[in-house]
Design brief:
Bound molecules: flavin-adenine dinucleotide
Structural class of chain B: alpha/beta
Helix content of chain B: 25-40%
Number of helices of chain A: 2
Protein name (chain B): NAD(P)/FAD-dependent oxidoreductase
Number of domains of chain A: 1
Strand order of the largest sheet of chain B: 5-2-1-9-20
Largest sheet of chain B: 5 strands, parallel
CATH class of chain A: Alpha Beta
Strand order of the largest sheet of chain A: 1-2-4-3
InterPro entries (chain A): TusA-like (IPR001455), TusA-like_sf (IPR036868)
Strand content of chain B: 15-25%
CATH superfamily of chain A: TusA-like domain
Distance between the termini of chain A: 23 Å
CATH topology of the largest domain in chain B: FAD/NAD(P)-binding domain
CATH class of the largest domain in chain B: Alpha Beta
Protein name (chain A): Sulfurtransferase TusA family protein
Largest sheet of chain A: 4 strands, mixed
Oligomer: heterodimer
CATH architecture of the largest domain in chain B: 3-Layer(bba) Sandwich
Organism (chain A): Haloarcula argentinensis
InterPro entries (chain B): FAD/NAD-bd_sf, FAD/NAD-binding_dom, SQRD
Shape of chain A: globular
Number of strands of chain B: 23
Number of domains of chain B: 2
Largest interface: A-B, 18 and 14 residues
CATH superfamily of the largest domain in chain B: FAD/NAD(P)-binding domain
Shape of chain B: globular
Helix content of chain A: 25-40%
Chain lengths: 78, 381
C-alpha cells in the first residue's frame, strides 16, 4: 500500500487496451506540473505500457499497487 | 397509453434506429401505442466518411449531405432543434430558444463526436483536418498548392472517429503524390500517441511495414502539446519537436456537454453496459454510436449494428416483454491503402482483427458501400 494522495484518479477498469494508457495521457494532459494522477487498470498490458510512456514523457511513475483484479499506477506530471 | 421514444441525433446511428423502429413497430405506431420522435440540430443528415476523399478531389462535401426528411420514415416525427438539457428525473428534454420541452418514456442518445481543436494551443490556426466539412475543403485547397516540403499527420485526440482514417490518409497522400510525380519532394511523417502506429496491436502490426515500405516516417509516443503556427512547429508532451510545412491533425474529440451535465458520463461519452447499451446511471436511457462508451471504435458500422440492437430492445420494451438483444462488439471497417487499393477488417469483443491483403476489389467495395450508404440510412440495407 502507498500513502500517496493522488490529485486525480482515472478509472480505466473494463477499458480494452490501449484505453487505459490513452486515458492516463488524457488526464496528465490536463494536469498541472507536480500533480499526481492515479490510473486504475485491469489490463496486464498497462504494466509495460505505463512505465514505458512515463519514461518517454519524463513523468515519474511513483508507485504501482497490485490488487487481485487490477493495478493502480501513480504518475506525477513533470 | 402512448409510449414516447425520443432519439437525439440524426446521424448514422439515430437515423438507422428511427427507420428500424418505424418498420419494427409498424402495427404499434398505427394503433397509437407508440410515438417516435427524432431530434437533430440541423435539417440535413451528414455522412462523414465522404470527407476522407474531399482533400484529394474525389468527392464533394455535398455528396455526404441529404435532407433528413427524405431519409426518415413518415411515421417518425422529425424535429429540427438543438437539445440543451436532459432531465433524466423528469424524463424531459429542453431545447435551445423557445421550443417547448418534450417528455420521453425512452430516450436514445446518438449525438456523435464533436471536434475540440481549441484544447491544443495553436491548433486552430496551425492545423488542417478532414474531420469536418470546412476542414476537408480547406485542406483540399492547401493540398492542391502543396508541391514540396514536410507533410505531418498527427493523431492528437483519442478516442476519435474512424480509427483507420489517419492511416488511410497517409497511405492515400503517399499514392496521390506519387501519381502526380511529387512524392520525392514531399516528406510524410505520421505521429501517434502510444508506442505503435494504431491502437489495435493487430492493425498496428499490419500497417507498420507498409509505412516503412512507402517511406512514411513514424513518430510514436507523440502527444501534441502545442503548435506554433508562425514557426511551423509541433511539440509533443514527450518533448519532441517537429518542423512542418503542412500540418494535418486528428483534433481532440469529445461528446456534447449536456451528457456530462446530466451525470451520464465523462467528456460527453455516455457510460453504458457494453452489451445492452443501456445507460449505467439512469433507467430508460440508451446510447449508441460514438457517444456510447463501449471501448469499440467510433465508426459508422458500429452505430449501424448498435441501432439494430437498440431497435430490438425498444420494440420488446414497448410490447411489455423483457428485452434480450445484445451487442457483441461487431465492427467492420474498410481501410484504404492507396488511391486504388484497400484492406478490410472485421472484429468484435471476442475476436481480434486480421486485415485482409489490400486489393482493388476491396477499394471498389468501400466506394460501393459509401454510395449505397443512403439505403442503409433509410433502413433498407
Ligand atoms: C473522415 C471520416 C471518415 C470516416 N470513415 C468511416 C468509415 O469508413 N467507416 C465507418 O464505419 N465510419 C467512418 N467514420 C466514422 C463515422 O462517421 C462515425 O463514427 C458515425 O457517424 C457515428 O455515428 P453517430 O450516429 O454516433 O454520430 P453522427 O453520425 O456524428 O451523428 C450525430 C448527430 O447528432 C446531432 N447532434 C449532436 N448534438 C445534438 C444536440 N444537442 N441536439 C440535437 N442534435 C444533436 C449532430 O448534428 C449529428 O447529426 C468516419 C468519420 C470521419 C470523420
Amino acid at each position: 500500500m502507498t500513502d500517496i494522495e493522488p490529485d486525480e484518479t482515472v478509472d480505466a477498469r473494463g477499458a480494452a487496451c490501449p484505453g487505459p494508457l490513452m486515458d492516463l495521457i488524457g488526464q496528465i494532459r490536463d494536469a498541472e506540473a507536480g500533480d499526481v494522477v492515479r490510473l486504475l487498470s485491469d489490463t496486464d498490458q498497462s504494466l509495460t505500457d505505463v512505465p514505458e510512456w512515463a519514461e518517454e514523457a519524463g513523468n515519474e511513475l511513483l508507485a504501482v499497487e497490485e490488487f487481485d483484479d487490477h493495478n493502480a499506477f501513480y504518475v506525477e506530471r513533470s | 397509453m402512448t409510449e414516447h421514444v425520443v432519439i437525439v441525433g440524426g446521424g448514422t446511428g439515430g437515423t438507422v434506429l428511427a427507420n428500424d423502429l418505424a418498420d419494427r413497430l409498424d402495427a404499434e405506431l398505427d394503433a397509437g401505442d407508440v410515438r417516435i420522435t427524432l431530434v437533430n440540430d440541423g435539417p440535413d443528415h451528414v455522412y462523414k466518411p465522404v470527407w476522407l476523399y474531399v482533400p484529394f478531389g474525389q468527392r464533394e462535401p455535398d455528396d455526404g449531405r441529404r435532407p433528413l426528411d427524405e431519409l426518415v420514415d413518415d411515421a417518425v416525427d422529425l424535429r429540427i432543434d438543438r437539445v440543451s438539457e436532459i432531465d433524466t428525473e423528469a424524463q424531459r428534454l429542453r431545447f435551445d430558444g423557445t421550443a417547448p420541452a418534450v417528455d420521453y418514456d425512452y430516450l436514445v442518445l446518438a449525438t456523435g463526436s464533436t471536434l475540440e481543436p481549441e484544447r491544443i494551443p495553436g491548433l486552430v490556426d496551425g492545423g488542417y483536418d478532414y474531420y469536418s466539412e470546412v476542414g476537408s475543403t480547406a485542406l483540399r485547397d492547401e493540398l492542391l498548392e502543396f508541391t514540396e516540403g514536410h507533410l505531418v499527420l498527427s493523431v492528437i485526440g483519442t478516442p476519435h472517429m474512424c480509427p483507420a482514417a489517419p492511416l488511410e490518409f497517409v497511405f492515400m497522400a503517399d499514392d496521390w503524390l506519387r501519381e502526380r510525380g511529387l512524392r520525392e519532394d514531399v516528406d510524410i511523417t505520421y505521429t501517434y500517441p502510444i508506442q505503435r502506429v494504431h491502437g489495435n496491436p493487430h492493425i498496428a502490426e499490419w500497417a507498420r511495414p507498409i509505412m516503412d515500405d512507402r517511406g512514411i516516417e513514424v513518430e510514436t509516443f507523440f502527444n501534441a502539446e502545442s503548435i506554433d503556427p508562425e514557426a511551423k512547429t509541433i511539440t509533443s508532451m514527450e518533448g519532441t519537436e517537429l518542423d512542418y510545412d503542412l500540418l494535418v491533425t486528428i483534433p481532440p474529440h469529445g461528446g456534447i456537454d449536456l451528457i456530462e451535465e446530466a451525470g451520464l458520463g465523462d467528456n460527453g461519452w455516455v457510460d453504458v453496459d457494453k452489451h445492452t447499451l443501456e445507460a449505467q446511471a439512469v433507467d430508460n436511457v440508451y446510447a449508441l454510436g460514438d457517444t456510447a462508451d463501449t471501448g469499440v471504435p467510433n465508426a459508422g458500422s458500429v452505430a449501424h449494428y448498435q441501432a439494430g440492437v437498440v431497435g430490438q430492445r425498444l420494440a420488446s420494451e414497448v410490447r411489455g416483454r423483457p428485452p434480450t438483444a445484445t451487442y457483441d462488439g461487431k465492427t467492420l471497417c474498410f481501410i484504404e491503402t492507396g488511391m486504388d487499393a484497400a484492406s478490410f477488417v472485421e472484429f468484435d469483443y471476442e475476436n481480434q482483427p486480421s486485415p485482409a491483403p489490400p486489393s482493388e476489389k476491396l477499394h471498389w467495395s468501400k466506394l460501393a458501400y459509401n454510395d449505397s450508404y443512403w439505403l442503409t440510412a433509410r433502413g433498407l440495407l
